[in-house]
Amino acid sequence: MRIPRQAARVAVLDPAGSVFMFRYDNEEVGVHWAMPGGGLDPGETPLEGAGRELREETGWTDIEPDGTVLCLWEHDFTRAGIPVRQHEHVFLAYGPRRDPVGDLSAAHAEDRILRWRWWSPQELSGGTEPLWPPQLPELLAGVRRNGPPGTPFDLRTAVSPLV
To answer: Which spans in 59-157 are helix H?
Structure first.
């Protein structure tokens, strides 16, 4: 039986359409790239959690998710030895291309974040390492072509390819 977990992430896009991502590597999930985000605190809305996680993981206090939900994603994995089914809201935000700021080493060590980088649309669609969610290149290509979605894309039936 999997424990339900609520989470939120933020797709931060720079003016050229590149997206900011972290590289994770741990024994339970494996190597993958994901956007800033994580589990919601009790009583926190997905939008509040997305903003908090973005600040905690990047040190950026001037970028906030704009409330637009790119997608809803539900996936299974193991976290701290416990099988979970994580339901994520992935929000959009826009900002300048830059590195995280401040001393984030403790937060990154706790989350097993090894490094970060900005992925251009071409790099994202041609990459070989696993992405969370795996459909991210197509989702962001749609945003570049058509603007933010009026209705979030629903990826809630996906099972992580890393399980």
So the answer is: 105-111, 121-126, 136-146
> What's the pLDDT at 159?
47
pLDDT computed for residue 67 by the predictor: 96
Amino acid (one-letter) located at 146 = N
Residues 144, 121: contact at Cβ < 8 Å?
yes
| Mean pLDDT for the stretch of residues 113-131 | 94
Strand ranges in 1-112 using DSSP code E only, listed in sequence order: 3-13, 19-26, 30-34, 37-39, 69-79, 82-94
Rounded Cα distance between 8 and 18, Å, is 20
For 41-92, the pLDDT digits (tens) are 999 999 999 999 999 999 999 999 999 999 999 999 888 889 999 999 999 9
pTM more than 0.90: yes
State both tokens at 29. Answer: 């999930």
Residue 51: strand, helix, or coil: helix
Q: Domain segments of the chain: what residues?
A: 3-155
**Helix or strand or coil: residue 58?**
helix
Torsion of Cα atoms, 39 then 130 then 154 then 96, to 10°: 70
* CATH class given for the domain over 3-155: alpha beta
Cα separation, 98 vs 85, in Å, equals: 33
